[in-house]
Amino acid sequence: MSEFSRTELLIAVVARLLRGCRHVAVGASSPIPGAGALLARMQSNSTMRVTVLGSLRHEGFTSGGVELFDMAAQGRIDAFFLGGGQIDGQANINLVGTGEYPNSEVRWPGCFGSAYLYFLVPRVILFRDEHSRRVMVPKVDFISAPGASEPGVHRVSGPYAMLTTLGLFFFDRERGRFKLDSVHPGSSVEEIRDNTGFDFDCPDHVPVTPPPDAGTLSAIRGAIRSDIADTYPRFATRLTAAS
Amino acid sequence: MSLDSREQIVESNAASSLEALAATITDGALLAVPKDSSGVAMAATRELVRRGVRNLHLLCVPVGGLQADILIGAGAVATIETSAVTLGEFGAAPRFTTALRAGAIRILDATCPAIYAALQAGEKGIPFMPLRGIIGTDLLRNRQDWKVIDNPFAELDRIVALPAIRPDFALFHAPLADRHGNVFVGAKRELMLMAHAARQTLVTVEEFIDENLLDDPQRAPGVLPAIYVTRVAAASHGAWPLAFWDLYSDDEAALANYVAAAGTDTGFTKFLDSWLDTRRAVA
Q1: Which residue from B minimizes the CA distance to A28?
Q2: Domain end marker among B114, B137, B163
Q3: Residue B65: inside a domain, yes or no?
Q4: Domain count, chain B
Q5: Cβ separation B112–A105 shorter than 8 A
Q6: Which spans in chain A are helix H?
Q7: Which of B80, B83, B250 is the best residue to mutate to test the A interface, defined by the most A CB atoms within 10 Å of its own CB?
Q8: Contact B158 A73 (CB under 8 A)
Q9: Whole-structure pTM over 0.90, yes or no?
Q10: Are residues B48 and B97 in the same domain?
Q11: Which of chain A's ends, N or C, has fewer CB atoms near its CB within 10 Å?
């Protein structure tokens, strides 16, 4: 088995989660999802469309900033990524800050399009590059976007999966809970429990996340790295250093 | 000043010096500015800070970056209305986060499509625009100006109504203008939206050209007609140190220096002094 970095593993898992999508969009400050989406497109023999916001090469909009959101409302985007400074067990996400709003102790950039896209894109993948109790909290301090909505609120979708540095979860919309699907190489169910501030479903046997194969790794280190560099030049440089 | 010598005399009433353009923006104005990738008028922002503008209601369309952070740090902003403020790969916006913690500015947190929708209501001259999503968020709880209404055409369908936004000014940077005041914005149609909704639009451009932009059928669909444009000023490298379209990239060293300096009050003051003193030498 070839050596791989955690970033490369995450990129490969993102690509796997996107299989079968016709159009994937990736928002601001999302280099790993962006690289994963470009990898998924490559693996689909370019039948998948990928939009990377802020990219000169991979943003084919001609109707301005509103076009992404109009497309989402019409069902023209199959998957999107959201994150959160805080994420809770009901899949509520907080992109605003901790403590008493608006004078947040820690202030994050803001909600971006989350308060809208979470309702309208069928496959929203929560991605977080930190898995700790300060991120995975019992209850978020501010709901930027809710994991579920009451009847009478138009909602075609909600959370699909959550990928972190330790493992992969799927979200059971019926039960309103996360279920651990796999544990990344080097981590364990115990480590995930210790670093998660909410309860989640967990089968008796949790498999290890499959590592990227040699072909996937060489794609990430070659074409994908240069493809993502136009949007995230600093990330692309680090990607080289990590591999 | 050195920039004046490079400015060209143009025939349009809209043609302006950078200083005069910035002087148009009054204290207390609702000022709409675009996201980094659309074209940020940084040279004009410097003039604005130099003239000591105060009490702005800054509307970021739909997110802000370095420009918002500098305006906040300079004490020019009373209210910021935005879906996010970030320096992208350079990290958090230090003056924004410091000002919020201190309660020095009021924030109207939004979500990107809500800002576009409210501007669309503004450009159409209608009172509000309905928009999906948002219900159940703490954004809505903190926005007294956003209402939830019943869809009049269906049973059991609640939807958010956003009041129209008509900015006093839209300010952005574009590559080209002609001598009639027409401005080329290409596929950056959010700039058109801002200009349509705003009462006045102020633009800096890399250069003026002699031909009428509307005469070229290939270019015309990407042209903001002069009727919307109050003033245009030439500002070569006018988005520096930010990237501008595919014409130039981020000045990474300048942005890294900003982040390093602006984390403290004294560091930001030092940055501001040198920024206001500098006229970037452009070949």
Answers
A1: B88
A2: B163
A3: yes
A4: 2
A5: no
A6: 6-17, 31-43, 67-73, 114-120, 189-194, 214-219, 225-228, 233-242
A7: B83
A8: no
A9: yes
A10: yes
A11: N
Does residue B87 belong to any structural domain of this protein? yes
Q: Are residues B211 and B244 in the same domain?
A: yes
- Regarding whether B214 and B265 lie in a shared domain, the answer is yes
Residue B242 has what DSSP assignment?
S
For the complex shown, is ipTM > 0.90?
yes
Q: Which domain holds residue B156?
A: 128-163
Q: Are residues B65 and B194 in the same domain?
A: yes
Q: What is the pLDDT of residue A239?
A: 81
Distance CA B168, CA B162 (A): 18
The answer to whether the CB atoms of B112 and A69 lie below 8 A apart is yes
Cβ-Cβ pairs closer than 8 A, A with B, add up to 146
Domains by residue range for chain A, with CATH: 6-83+111-129+146-242 (3.40.1080.10)
Residue B119 shares a structural domain with residue B193 = yes
pLDDT in tens, chain B (283 residues): 344 444 444 445 678 899 999 999 999 999 999 999 999 999 999 999 999 999 999 999 999 999 999 999 999 999 999 999 999 889 999 999 999 999 999 999 999 999 999 999 999 999 999 999 999 999 999 999 999 999 999 999 999 999 999 999 999 999 999 999 999 999 999 999 999 999 999 999 999 999 999 999 999 999 999 999 999 999 999 999 999 999 999 999 999 999 999 999 999 999 999 999 875 444 3
Q: Across the interface, which of B109, B113, B192 has its CB nearest the CB of A113?
A: B113
Q: Check if the beta carbon of residue B236 is closer than 8 Å to that of residue B206.
A: yes
Domain assignment of residue B280, yes or no = no
Q: Which helix (H) or strand (E) holds B147?
A: strand B147-150
Buried b (16+ CB within 10 A) or exposed e, A126-149: bbbeebeeebbbeebbbbbbbbbb
